[in-house]
Please model this.
Amino acid sequence: MMLSFYNIQRKNKTAGIKNAIIYQLLGVALIGIFGVNVLNALVTNVWFNITFFVLLVVFAVYFLGAF
Model:
């Protein structure tokens, strides 16, 4: 899914690589600011996971042509 996201946004190969690096740096900055434990608590939170699951189901239904 991430590769498709980067490929759709890119105008050329260099722009795609630049976008990937920016997103990686944002991830490292989040870990630096909040710490690994806070992010671990987020991804093991039941409400976050249910919300993410519903979002992925909506995407799947969209990709199958329901909307």
